[in-house]
Design goal:
Blueprint (H helix, E strand, L loop, with lengths): L5 E4 H4 E3 L15 E5 L15 E4 H4 L4 E4 L3 E4 L10 E3 L7 E4 L3 E6 L5 H9 L1 H9 L12 H5 L2 E4 L2 H45 L4 E4 H6 L3 E6 L17 E4 L4 E2 L2 E2 L5 E3 L1 H4 L6 E2 L4 E6 L1 E7 L7 E3 L3 E6 L6 H7 L3 H11 L9 H4 L3 E4 L2 H44 L5
Parallel strand pairs: 3-8, 13-20
Antiparallel strand pairs: 1-10, 2-9, 3-4, 5-8, 6-7, 6-9, 11-22, 12-21, 13-16, 14-15, 17-20, 18-19, 18-21
Helix pairs in contact: 6-12, 9-12
């Protein structure tokens, strides 16, 4: 750190969670305030849009109070780890209320809000905080004391302003580069989707519902991993045994078996649904919706979590590789997106999956399309890998700039 800079706890130079009684000192319960739910706070974005207003009296009781220029940070998992963070600006009557999972940080005047924002932008802040979270699984929170005691280097205000100006300019350029790369990444994914849709349209196949394919035996079995009361507990997973996979095991349409959990053979034998086998097409239908992959395994069975469904084909009628690739096309995606658009839950129930249409041409044409898809997918995957590496490089450059900034080495 640069000589002459002080280091203070963030709570010494900022008020952590200012009391909401301050709001009633300036406005009435019948006055408008901005309302910001968790969904409106961006991830590592300095500014965010306040889209709603409510009366102060409506929100005073159960929400977090903040005001103009306060820094907001989410304290609950996974929002904290994802970097939900921003500076409140443009608030109705200068006052806002939002999620009870926000922590509001107000400068005492000795530190700039933008300087605080960039300090909290660092990976180190989130990685350290994630290790000390407390609470039940799925509801873990960063202790507010961690934020209050966070040591922060404190250069003079003029130097803070210079650092912020340099970072603003650099991050703006990096954001443009990231947006361009993300567009290229999306184009690489759409290249494959577009081919699949075009190939199916020209295949001579007739669209049929999944239920029809089940009825005539083209699809032998279609089940999800909804184990109900038999759902395995965390304590029941072991270091080796029968593989148990969930949606997070699918990455770029490949099943990463090194991410799976395991059950003992005895415990796995108690489960009657969601028992997949080699050659099944696996569809992620819950929470993370859309990834499709072919299960390739030497295991006798693989247990699916509640987030996955298997499609088991009669290979004399439907080529599993063809089915997998057809389900990666834009036509299938539009069907499950339409279902999700009618619900507040990010899932596609198995009953709805059976109403979806699949275009199934002659087996010879299926084989031809499957082979072409494999070739195109490899080219697409190479492009995706390139653009993902570029995004990682851009993020690493941001962190390197932040490290220099708070060490007093930013020129």
């Amino acid at each position: 750190m640069k000589a002459g800079w002080e280091v203070k706890a963030l709570g010494e130079v900022c008020q952590i969670k200012p009391p909401k009684s301050l709001a009633r000192k300036s406005i009435l319960d019948t006055d408008d305030v901005s309302f910001v739910p968790m969904s409106d706070l961006g991830e590592l974005e300095q500014s965010f849009e306040s889209r709603q207003t409510k009366l102060l009296g409506e929100v005073y009781g159960g929400y977090t109070y903040f005001a103009e220029n306060d820094v907001l940070v989410a304290k609950i998992t996974p929002c904290f780890e994802n970097g939900k963070l921003g500076i409140a600006r443009g608030l109705a009557n200068g006052i806002g209320f939002g999620s009870s999972e926000f922590v509001a940080i107000r400068s005492s005047g000795a530190i700039l809000p933008e300087y605080v924002f960039y300090f909290l932008y660092r990976n180190e802040f989130r990685e350290t905080g994630a290790k000390i979270m407390t609470g039940a699984v799925g509801h873990k929170r960063v202790p507010e004391e961690y934020i209050r005691q966070l040591p922060i280097p404190l250069p003079p205000l003029d130097e803070q302003k210079r650092i912020v100006e340099v970072l603003d300019a650099a991050f703006e350029g990096l954001s443009r580069a990231r947006a361009h790369t993300e567009t290229n990444l999306q184009n690489a994914r759409e290249l494959f989707e577009g081919y699949v849709e075009d190939a199916l349209a020209k295949s001579g196949g007739v669209p049929r519902t999944l239920q029809e394919l089940l009825d005539d035996g083209s699809i032998i079995s279609h089940l999800d991993g909804n184990h109900g009361g038999l759902y395995p507990k965390k304590s029941e997973f072991v270091s080796a045994g029968v593989p148990y996979i969930s949606a997070n095991c699918i990455d770029e349409n490949l099943i990463q078996m090194d991410r799976c959990k395991f059950l003992t053979p005895e415990r796995a034998a108690t489960l009657r649904k969601g028992v997949a086998q080699n050659g099944d097409v696996i569809f992620a239908h819950n929470a993370t919706v859309g990834p499709v992959a072919l299960l390739e395994t030497n295991e006798e069975c693989v247990i699916l979590s509640t987030s996955l469904t298997y499609y088991r084909c009669d290979p004399s009628r439907i080529n599993p590789i063809f089915l997998m690739n057809s389900m990666r096309g834009a036509g299938f995606r539009r069907q499950y997106e339409a279902v999700m658009g009618q619900s507040t839950r990010n899932q596609v129930p198995i009953t709805m999956q059976r109403t979806f249409f699949h275009t199934i041409p002659a087996l010879e044409e299926q084989t031809r399309i499957a082979a072409a898809c494999t070739e195109i997918e490899q080219s697409s995957r190479d492009l995706i890998s390139h653009y993902r590496a570029k995004l990682a490089d851009l993020d690493a450059l941001r962190q390197a700039l932040l490290q220099k900034a708070f060490a007093g080495e930013l020129t």
